Amino acid sequence: MTAEPSAPPRPEQTDADFWLRTYRRFAGPLWFFAWSLLAGIILWLILDVEWHTVREFLFNDRILKGLRVTLFLTLWSMLLGVILGLLFGVMRVAHSSIVNGLANLYIWVIRGTPVLLQLFIVYFGLRDYIQPSWLGDTPFGNIPLLRDFNDVGFRAAVIALGVNEGAYMAEIVRAGIISVDTGQMEAARSLGMTNLQGMRRIVLPQAVRVIVPPTGNELIALTKNTSLVFTIGVFELFAFARQIYGRNFDIFELLLVAAFWYLVVTTVLSIGQAMLEARLASTREEAETRPLWRRALDVLNRPRLDGVGRD
Amino acid sequence: MIDRAPDRPTVRVEDVHKRFGRLEVLRGISFDVARGEVVVVIGPSGSGKSTLLRCINHLEKIQQGRIYVDGELVGYRVENGNLKEESEARIARQRSRVGFVFQRFNLFQHLSAIENLTEAPVHVLGLSPRLAREQAREMLSVVGLEDKARAMPAQLSGGQQQRVAIARALMMNPKLMLFDEPTSALDPELVGEVLKVIKYLARTTGMTMIVVTHEMDFAADVANRILFMDGGVVVEEGPPAQFDNPREPRTREFLRRVLQRDGAEEETEPDKLDVNGGSQ
Q: Contact B119/A201, CB-based, under 8 Å?
């Protein structure tokens, strides 16, 4: 969130200046591309990979089907995580120790146990609840977006990953809330708003700037964590890759295919996150006229000082 | 139970005690403010002036005593002779009738000036957004900021922000305005524009007000009555003229120090750093 130092005024611009400036602007992506090319060549040389097999399975039907499940699993889990995060994040800053204690318990348990174990607890331990007899085999029929929920494993996965995500989101929301000056809430209360109104209308909208960047990281981490659900028999990207190489033994090629798609998804998310951050920053800093994609480039290129992902 | 006599005071404070842990900040405060009266509270820092103001709006709880605004007990109900805190909704409703102006303005940073004004009328009083915007425009012109309606708080000077904050409080059509050191966070050259607005309110609208301030000239000018607080009690109280020649030695001592500081400031050249400072 730090402000970029503005360039000193240049009296005259020569061609050399132009090229230097252009280089500086694109140096990050340029070198990123150069290094990935080099890494690719090294992989090519030292690994015995049948590249035509990789190419063949890249757009394989099952792989694409798995990719779709991965995306929806991420989407639903994140949705649940954000809702729980907002709820428990607000509870975390409540004055009531009863409310506060409950939120603390949730965060303590969820952050203190492995997500894989939580997945198993929901799937095996709570099976009677996520697949009650009255629900039937396909309760969601063929409804386009909800179709996936017909699968018990998918339901268990969304619950487990969402509840897990909620604990991390709660801490992020809490950090966002306490970043907002306490005078804002006092002003809201002095105007006759209740605590909940002040939180929803005054504090949370201002907390968003602090909440968005780590939430992007969480979304990316969650995307990768969905690969764990093959253990409870949900067929997403990684599970389909495993299934395919289990038959044809092209293990490394299919792992590369899965890796490729995960990278595509996380890259798109990173770019989206950068653009969103750039947008949020611009409402605060005046006279920001550069196009969004260029500001997003700044966000992507800036040094990472805000810690690494949790896994 | 609720006294509805027509001549009831707008504010009645009875034997109010306030403790932060073991520190007793207010030690038995009592006074009345009549309708339309302007009471200025002065006193050294730490004397409990701001805390008193915050108690009147129930932004702070009290441990003992009673505070009535317009005849209604603020923040509490009496059960078996004991104070019991009221429901949040009721306290919120009570606060909506009292305007509070903060030392640090506390404008909603994510809303433009006009949105700051319309937020509470729309979402607390249920006013239609269109009507609220109309009223807000008028109110902004009252404080001389009709051209800043769409500005964000960060784009306004301190004095402008405080004037928006005053307008925001007035939008709720309060019975009482509380000002908590409204000019203390301002650069000296911006103090005048804010005081002018407060003076206008006092003179033209007849608003009932309690103002905590260090600006003695302003206090003498605008107040019907001045309270001098020290150590959590009201030491002296009376019309401004009384403070030209105060009865209490503590008041004399305080005024001497304040006037000395003001004098020192006047002698300092405006663009020169005041190294010695005044006793703040």
A: yes
Nearest of B126, B156, B124 to residue B140 by alpha carbon: B156
Tell me, yes or no, if B104 comes closer than 8 A to chain A by beta carbon: yes
User: Which residues on neighbouring strands pair with residue B209, listed in sequence order?
Assistant: B38, B177
The predicted-structure confidence for B134-186, as pLDDT tens digits, reads as follows: 999 999 999 999 999 999 999 999 999 999 999 999 999 999 999 999 999 99
Residue A275 has φ and ψ, to the nearest 5°, of -65, -40
A287: left (phi over 0), alpha (psi -120 to 50) or beta: left
- Find which of A99, A179, A184, A190 to mutate to test the B interface (most B CBs within 10 Å of its CB): A190
Contacts of A205 in chain B (CB under 8 A): 110
Q: Identify the three-state secondary structure at position B65.
A: strand
Cβ contact (<8 Å) for B104 and A193?
no
Angle at which helices A292-301 and A15-46 pack, to 10 degrees?
Answer: 60
HSE-up of residue B87 (Cα within 13 Å, Cβ side): 3
Q: DSSP label at B271? A: T
What pTM was computed for the model? 0.82
Measured from the Cβ of residue B115, the count of other Cβ atoms closer than 10 Å reads 19
Q: How far apart are CA B246 and CA B166, in angstroms?
A: 32
Q: Is the Cβ pair A191, B169 closer than 8 Å?
A: yes
Please report the pLDDT score of residue B231 as a whole number. Answer: 92
Interface test with A, best of B94, B107, B123 (most A CBs within 10 A): B123
Look up the ipTM and state it: 0.88
The verdict on a CB contact (< 8 Å) between B168 and A191 is: yes
Residue labelled with tokens 């904050």: B165
Nearest Cα residue in chain B from A190:
B95
Q: What is the pLDDT, as a whole number, of residue A145? A: 84
Q: Which is nearest to A76 in space by CA: A178, A154, A128?
A: A154
Q: Is B174 exposed, middle or buried (CB count within 10 Å of its CB: 0-12, 13-18, 19+)?
A: buried
Render pLDDT for A163-192 as a digit per residue (tens, 0 to 9).
999 999 999 999 999 999 999 999 999 999
